[in-house]
Amino acid sequence: SLPEKPRDVEFDPGNWILKTLDFDKPKGMMLQQLQTDRNMIGRVRAAQRLTKYPTEDVVDALRTTVLKTPFWGVQASAAKALGTIRTSPALRALIAGLKTKHPKARRAVVKALGEFRDEDAAKALIGVLDEGDPSYFVEGEAARSLGKTRSPKAFDALKKNLRKESFNETIRIGVLDGYAELRDAQATPIII
């Protein structure tokens, strides 16, 4: 018995127990956990659970998490959640998330953009490839995700980026994976 309704309830708040946890809570408690939990794993779990609620307030909270949370792991989980939600506001939130500073978070954002078969997602991914990114891994993931969008513009954009040099051929491998995701027979001679 409590004097008032709790803002949040958490099982194993310090995450000391090795576990797989399915702990459903009301949406309001998960939003509270995403925004205020001092433990980053708690925030990651909240982002994962919030995919069950593709509402505007959830998308706004995930967007804020991608843009403003200091730890890249939480930003990446929020980006992945937005990719799972796949609504128009989620797509806009991910496009805004391309401005995040940490390369691992940006990589998660471009990967999540690949979940949308939408020309706006393709345009944003082509922009990442055309403008370049300080991280080769972000560009490689952008190429891979561009293929997943199956955009008519993807084939030429991927071909243009096939010759980019990068550490361990990271971008080139992403382009080849993008062609595989695109499933366009015209890519076969290029790959060979």
Question: Mind explaining what this structure looks like?
Answer:
There is one protein chain. The chain is mainly α and 192 residues long. It is built from eleven helices and no strands. Helix 3 runs parallel beside helix 5 (88-97), helix 5 (88-97) packs antiparallel against helix 6 (103-113) and helix 8 (136-149) packs antiparallel against helix 9.
Question: How would you summarize this macromolecular structure in one to three sentences?
Answer:
The chain is mainly α and 192 residues long. The protein has helices at residues 27-36, 40-49, 56-68, 72-85, 88-97, 103-113, 119-131, 136-149, 154-161, 170-182, 187-191.
Q: Determine the structural class based on helices, strands and strand pairing.
A: mainly alpha
- The total count of helices amounts to 11
Return residue spans where pLDDT drops below 50 for at least 5 consecutive residues.
Answer: none
Taken in chain order, the helices and strands follow as HHHHHHHHHHH
Q: Note the main sheet.
A: none
